[in-house]
Amino acid sequence: MTFTTLEDAGKFYRNYAKAAGFSTRVRCTNRKGNEIKNQLITCSREGKWKSKISPTEKTNPTAGLNCPARIYIHTLKDVGAWIISKVVLDHSHPCCPSKAEMLKQYRELSMSIRRTIENNDEAGIRPSKTYQSFVAAAGGHRELNFIEKDVRNYITREVRNVSEQEDAKEFGKYFLRMKEKNPNFFFELELEEDQSIKLAFWADARSRAAFEYFGDVISFDTTYNTNRYNLVCGSFVGVNHHGQSTLLGCSLMKNEEIESFKWLFQCWSKDSFDRNWNDFLLNFGLADNKWLSGSREQAERELDAADFHTVIPCATKSSIEAQFQDAYTHAKFREVQAQFRGKANCITRLKNSALGYLVYEVVEQVSSSIFNNFSVTYDSVAAEVKCQCLLFESRGILCRHALSVLSFEQVSQVSPRYILERWSKKVKRRHTHIKSSHDEPLMEPRSKRFDQLVFRSQNICEFASESEELTAILHCAYDNVMAEMEALKAKRKGTSSLSHEDANLESVNELQSPPRIRTRGRPKNRLGSKLEKQIANATKKKKTKVLSEVNVMFFKFVVIEFIFLVNSLANV
User: Fold this and answer.
1) Which intervals hold domain SWIM-type (predicted)?
2) Does residue 437 form part of some domain?
């Protein structure tokens, strides 16, 4: 048999192997200079691997069975074609054509499958869930020509294929792209002498705008740690008007020394936080990581819409509760309602009064036998109320004890100072009009073209699915277009085009990744609390005590055995 090219000959044998139920591999290729003279293609179970480990029962399985099936292909000099000169069809193992499509050589991921895997990985969907969605869409495992391992391998090799040397550079390129999208994106870096990242801080435009409204109380947490480079991940977290945590800034620190925290808090301070981009771009190099996901932004938008279009009914007839109902978001109004319901367990008594300044004792029944006393002061002239529990000072809502006193005084409206603007649903906050900083995936040109075609074809498919006639028209159009594209592809066979975008990022390319470490999660040298240290010391003492007791018992046993042996020898 003769073929025009070596690829055609190899493709012919692979098609035969798939139909027969086995897979192939190129065993050897002989060349003369740069030209291929002949090639040997064998069954993938050719050869035999012998384990050097004993016993052999514990070694990994091997596919080699010295299978003799093979073909020899060599070129014809005069004709310029390729010929199969020798064929061996016998196998040393059974072949199964029905299972051939699940062999590694024939398993493949189509473009649509690959794009779905990439999108799901970007959204944080686990590979197992992605594979199960393919199974459900295809109608069962038998309808797929790939397995879950192929999905995981594609994510590891293609989607997350970033070398350690390129991590820091990609870190900086990400921030440059975010800065180009929105000039209010802020970041700063502190570099080591070898240009590796020592400290990093960043916050996008939406977080900076949210800081204006929710920056009164901020939590800084350094619990988390990166596995690969042992960098401490710190987060600045506030509370929005729905009572939810909102991310205001992020940081990476190589260590938790005092100087590191000083640098970080200087970046966070108002002066450094509002500096112009051009001032610090000259002094610092750059940073990465995805944060402030769109799901949080979308949830906040949905809650804002619910606050304006729905109403939570009042639990009591109090006009003060109606005042909070009109002003507060649903999330905070539910907290206020909990205080109004708890007011039923409070008994209010007047203790002292002088010139409009009243002191009340509020007794709250916690259980059938437990009563707690609280002192509440009320200034009728200034319309101020203050409770001993300090719930308003800590949580920003009036406590049940203060509400009980206001009800006792028959107050119909609370002072505006107790209706905080940060919980209001009527304030138009600037940060809600700013999008979060999201990076567009860096796709190959083919992937971009594929997404564009899929997006345009969705409307056509939806329209054609309305009837059988429209579906038949679309099928006919697809067949014609497919034939035309195959003809064009055959005409252009052997030619290729290459396009790429080049960027001059000298400052970014100088960045180096921190030293790689082998660890998972937070290391044991984390700054633990006093309670953790006490528990660890107590456990250590307990283990030492048990070990000492075991050693004493063993020593006694040895002594007894020695005495018994001496007595036996003496009797002899």
Assistant:
1) 374-410
2) no
Tell whether pTM > 0.90.
Answer: no
Domain count for the chain: 4
Confidence of residue 407 (pLDDT cuts 50, 70, 90): very high
Cα distance from N-terminal residue to C-terminal residue, the chain: 95
Q: Does the pLDDT of residue 58 top 60, yes or no?
A: no
* Dist CA 451 CA 225 (whole Å): 36
Residue 560 included in any domain: no
What are 508-558's pLDDT values in tens digits? 556 666 666 655 555 555 555 555 666 677 666 655 655 555 455 555 554
Distance CA(18)–CA(128), nearest Å, equals 28
Indicate the residue type of 157: R
User: How many whole angstroms separate alpha carbon 102 and alpha carbon 108?
Assistant: 10
pLDDT at position 449 over 50: yes
Whether 273 is covered by a domain: the verdict is yes
Classified as helix, coil or strand, 333 is helix
The tally of CA atoms less than 13 A away on the side-chain side of residue 64 is: 8
* pLDDT one-digit tens code per residue, 131-165: 999 988 888 888 888 889 898 888 887 766 655 55
CB 237 within 8 A of CB 221: yes
Structural domain span for residue 131: 111-159
